[in-house]
Amino acid sequence: MKVIKKVKDLREVLKVYKKEGRTIGLVPTMGFLHKGHASLIKRAVSDNDIVVVSDFVNPIQFGPNEDLDAYPRDIEADSKLCESLGADFIFNPDPSEMYHDKKAFVDIEGLSDNLCGARRPGHFRGVCTVCTKLFNIVGSDRAYFGQKDAQQLSIIKKMVGDLNIPVEIIACPIVREDDGLAMSSRNTYLTSKERKAALCLSKAIFAGEKMAKEGASVKEVLTKIEEIISAEKLAKIDYISAVDLETIKDVDDFSKATLVALAVYIGKTRLIDNFIYEV
Ligand code: PAF
Fold this sequence. Notes:
- By secondary structure, this protein is α/β, with parallel strands linked by helices.
- It is built from ten helices and nine strands.
- It has a six-stranded parallel β-sheet, with helices on both faces. A three-stranded antiparallel β-sheet has the order 7-8-9.
- The longest helix has 16 residues.
- The chain starts with a strand and ends with a strand.
- It binds pantoate (PAF).
- Pantoate (PAF) binds next to β2 and α6.
């Protein structure tokens, strides 16, 4: 397992494997890897001959008042985990390697106007730009994304289709702590009191999903979710929405694959969770 910092070096080393016809899987991450990332890496290792994990806190997907500087980083622990899971390379560039004098960006219309995109202007432009760069740098056959960032996943799928980027996007299920909290690098920001309070997210998601499966309407499901979150004193709702999984437009019935998603502040930490209702 090797940590590579330069685009040129990564391309050179991967060229050899490509010539041999070996398949390459890419797991894009911002590092500080947890069990959620581990599940993506394991899947990539089982599907591909060579696995590259990108470990890059992407500055251009953070807004001016967001947590870019505070975002946790631990490349040594990440390397050990990747090694133990059988990944072959970590790509860990400096921001200047990725964005020296950068003037070109990739953006997507429509799908970023709702949910996290509406609350975090420019966030998905940053995500689309870095993912396009990573797809171009690595040239992987497949790339692995977690369902926890469901809007991101819908956007990446659409972007890859619209821009004819030859990579297969593989969606992997949300990984949760034993008590239900969805894994996130941002969980480390929570105090022990907040950590307990954060359980309202998964509690609300599980209750909403059960109701949806039992035939409740979108309105009833959203009302229940709101009720559960509002009962937690440390929680402040950013949004609770039901949207068409493909277009990310609000829906008022479950006639198509529907993403029921929420973002909630627990203290200063913004957490997200969701479920997908398949028809
Ligand atoms: O989901 C993330 O961790 C990031 O948004 C990603 C896809 C690695 C791009 O920086």
